[in-house]
Amino acid sequence: MIAPPSLNQSVASITEIDENVYMVIDSGATINVCPSFFAQDYPLYQIHGGGLVSATGQSIKQYGIKSVLFEIEKDFYTWIKFKVCEVSHVFLSVPALNRGGHHVHFGKDLYIDFNGSTDQRRRVQFADAGDHYYLRPLRLVPYDETSSIANDDNIFKMDLIQAVTNSADKNPSALQSGQAIC
Length: 182
Fold this sequence. Notes:
Elements: H1 11-17, E1 23-26, E2 33-34, E3 51-53, E4 59-60, E5 62-73, E6 76-85, E7 91-93, H2 94-99, E8 103-105, E9 111-115, E10 121-125, E11 127-128, E12 133-135, E13 139-140, H3 143-149, H4 153-167, H5 172-177, E14 179-181
Parallel strand pairs: 1-7, 2-6, 3-14
Antiparallel strand pairs: 1-12, 3-4, 5-6, 5-13, 8-9, 9-10, 11-12
């Protein structure tokens, strides 16, 4: 059995050395975020304007946006959109997942109802590590394999840009400051 990740553990050791992808589930974040070295083979789309702030109010440097294909369980795939920035871990925002058609459930049972790349739904358990919740997908799909799984790239790119642009619109304080909270 693989031990749950610690928030003190470097994301580099989780995603690059160990090859296990752990994503922290954050109910207080407004958008999904990942560090710049996560899924480096995926295209990074530059964005201008807006900004990111941490829960403590500190500015976070941002690099752009990307969407990454995960094999959540055997033969079940879904795209997750991220703002790429100076963060220590991959964070999944509960509100962003909900806006993306995935539904997060906290309670006796911990799960996410995921929309798949082929309009399938799948209930996937996530874990409680004591001080945080995390999801461990089966794998991060290498970018060169994505075209054989989901190939409507033009619609995908437009959806990616629209989703990140709209994320600040859902948070009134972000509208006033021009920033999203992560």
